[in-house]
Amino acid sequence: MTTAKIKLSATADVEEFVNAASKCEYDIDVFYNRFIIDAKSILGVLSMDLSRELTVKCYGDDPQFFSRIQKFAVA
């Protein structure tokens, strides 16, 4: 299991992130406070507060996924 912090600033970013997550065969969740959303659900991710930093938790190992979402990473 791997975690990363991301920030999605626009709906185009959400679309790109969800498309990257959908290409993975394992589960990926997005966390903010007590809310847990399936990263492959565009409506779920859009319902989150996009002005905040989000935590992504991956239940598999795919380096290509992390390279695709690297541009959304927060230090």
UniProtKB/TrEMBL annotation:
This is HPr family phosphocarrier protein. It comes from the Bacteria. Residues 16-62 form the HPr domain. It comes from Candidatus Blautia gallistercoris.
